[in-house]
Design goal:
Number of strands: 3
Structural class: alpha+beta
Radius of gyration: 13 Å
Strand content: 25-35%
Shape: elongated
Oligomer: single chain
Order of helices and strands: EEEH
């Protein structure tokens, strides 16, 4: 699974966006916004597979730790 993260500045905060999942996070630095979004994405994927009773969720590709 390949996901894209876009970062943009909005007023005094940075917004990180994953357009494939329509998920956003924000923070005062771009690095923190991306870190937060990566955690949210991992939680989202894990939750989706737990909900569907699939015991082997895919690992996200890229730097999503």
């Amino acid at each position: 699974m390949l996901l894209t993260i876009e970062v943009f500045k909005e007023k005094n905060e940075y917004v990180a966006k994953c357009k494939e999942l329509n998920i956003y996070s924000y923070a005062r630095s771009s690095e923190k916004a991306v870190q937060r979004l990566e955690k949210i994405i991992n939680f989202y994927i894990q939750s989706a597979y737990e909900y569907s009773n699939n015991s082997n969720p895919p690992e996200p590709k890229g730097n999503l730790n």
